[in-house]
Amino acid sequence: MSIENNINQYTNSNFKPISFIEKKEMGEVSVLPVGAGRAEFLTVIGAGPGDPDLITIKAIKALQAANVVLYDALINKSLLNYAYKAEKIFVGKRKGCYAYQQEQINELIVSRAKSHGHVVRLKGGDPFIFGRGAEEIDYAQQFDIKTDMIPGISSSLAVPAYQGIPLTKRGLSESFWVITGTTKSHKLSQDIYLAAKSNATVVILMGMSKLNEIVSIFAAENKQEVPVAIIQNGTTEKERFGYGTISTIEDVVSEKKISSPAIIVIGEVVNQRVQLASIYNEIQEEIVS
């Protein structure tokens, strides 16, 4: 269903735009007006992995109540249609170029909350998984701005799922790691060395620039034949993917011209995607015949 149809559906049903935010405090529900009296409020929202239909209803309500929306590069722009009365400001990063530095975004949150009221910070995926959402909330609270957080579906879970890759499977993978490929110091996370020693599924975000290092670490653990999937722009119309092993994935990436933003999935569960696809193809063949 398109985003426009979604808006019409909500408008024509019992789903009504809200003019307040309900927030549980001390076990009780208090009502905070939005707009009236310019109440200073920040809502940090996870927009999900890219497919606009994967945003939550609660997030949509907050967007409808927003006076200002500060949004990142990886959110689906059609979601901004829900914030029909809000000022919209792009604060994301494209190809390494920042529209605003993080300190500037923090200051913008505070200034707009004090001048406009309800600020929504719209982030891709889930704001509390490598999204710096907690930092922005901490900063706003220093200025006595009330805050709320609405989780989003993390790309680390949803993107593999859209490709039919289960991160865990009984008898195959009992756990999974979610690791940033690039730390604050722009170096490879040391946790990848630990992950490479385990039998768990490993999901690496922001790791494409470090792919050669990652492959070398797993190869050093004699895991050259472990399956690897790399999925670019997952859950969107621009989705691209490549499959291989630790020993072949760099050639696959080069051949298919896969680049950031992408998710790296390492582990035996990657082969489950092949099995799911073959089952689907068999069903389609039976229908045709």
Overview of this protein structure:
The protein is α/β, with parallel strands linked by helices and 289 residues long. The chain is built from nine helices and 14 strands. The protein has two domains: 3-153, Tetrapyrrole methylase, N-terminal domain (Cobalt-precorrin-4 Transmethylase, domain 1); 156-275, Tetrapyrrole methylase, C-terminal domain (Methyltransferase, Cobalt-precorrin-4 Transmethylase, Domain 2, 2-Layer Sandwich), CATH 3.30.950.10. It is 31% helix and 24% strand. Strands 5-4-8-3-9 form a five-stranded parallel beta sheet, with helices on both faces. A hairpin with a 2-residue loop joins strand 1 (20-25) and strand 2. The longest helix is centred in the C-terminal third of the chain and has 19 residues, at 270-288. The protein is globular, with a radius of gyration of 21 Å. The chain starts with a helix and ends with a helix.
Strand line-up across the major sheet: 5-4-8-3-9
By CATH reckoning, the class of the largest domain would read Alpha Beta
How large is the share of residues in beta strands?
A: 15-25%
Name the CATH superfamily classification of the largest domain: Tetrapyrrole methylase, N-terminal domain
Q: Give me the strand/helix succession.
A: HEEEHEEEEHEHEHEHEHEEHEH
Helix fraction by DSSP (H/I, runs of at least 4): 25-40%
Backbone shape: globular
Instruction: Give the total of domains.
Output: 2
Write the layout of secondary structure elements.
Elements: H1 3-11, E1 20-25, E2 28-33, E3 41-46, H2 57-64, E4 68-71, E5 87-90, E6 93-94, E7 97-98, H3 102-116, E8 118-123, H4 133-141, E9 146-150, H5 155-162, E10 176-180, H6 191-196, E11 201-205, H7 211-219, E12 227-232, E13 240-245, H8 249-256, E14 262-266, H9 270-288
Parallel strand pairs: 3-8, 3-9, 4-5, 4-8, 10-11
Antiparallel strand pairs: 1-2, 6-7, 11-14, 12-13, 12-14
